[in-house]
Specification:
The chain has 299 residues and is an alpha/beta fold. The protein is 30% helix and 20% strand. Strands 1, 2, 3, 4, 5, 6, 7 and 8 form an eight-stranded mixed β-sheet that branches. Helix 3 links the parallel strand 1 and strand 2. The radius of gyration is 19 Å and the shape is globular.
Amino acid sequence: MKHVTEPVEEYYDRLARPMGAFSWYDDDDMLARIANLLPNYNLKVLELCCGGGQLLDAISRGGSRELSYVGVDISEKMVELATNRLEGNVRTRILRGDWVSPLGRGEHFDVIIVKNALHLIPQLARRLSELGSFLVPGGIVLIAETISPNAEVRGFVKGLFGILDPNSPKLHYFTSRSLLSLLHQCGLKESRNERCCTVDQFIDVRRWLKQKARSRSCLIGAQEHLAHAPLSVRQAMCFDNEELFGLPRIMLRRQVIVRLRDHSALRVRPRLDSTDQLRLPYGEREFAATPPPGGNGYR
């Protein structure tokens, strides 16, 4: 049977309301870290794939800087949520559209943010290469994305998502190495004195599976997949029962935040295969996650 991918806009229209219950979408630590990476002066900010507007809501609190904000999302329901959340903010525009398509020619921004969306974007290398055209000189790009601790976990997670929702629009699965390689080859690079940071969050597995699974049979299949994960995967993903078989109560969700500048004059054309996947060198750097002490406070 041919695999049929649900369009991204339909997928997020369907999940718009339930996503309000996902703890990591309103995570104060993650949003605060992104806010701290913004320059401390008046800014014109573009957020692509802005979702329900949680990030702008966070970065506009406090501080002396004024923000002029444009948010773009392909989902009609997400645009509705963001518009309602940011109602009354006269320096805000929320636009519905695909990536940069709704923007006018000649629009430029001090900061472009893409949070937890790259995994959904087709023709990703080409689209990342477009961002420099919308930056003012010296402008920055902030990327926040979910990553796997190593290549083995990436393969396991890809299998898990395929079971949870065979029609999921999720296209890409990253490690820190593969994501940075892609960004660099698209002309986006960190400054010498800047490093990416990781944020570890811990998922309530049963709740997450219930909200993500397309059907009961998908839910059961995903539970089995997790229950029989190899020991190396259980340890890397910080399962609370990493030494035993069985469904874990919690597992790791790691995000990386990268602050970049456009170096398109030095850009090397990305090496892509026929499926638009970046071909990477062998080997992935592993990162160790530290779960909360005592087994308490997991979310």
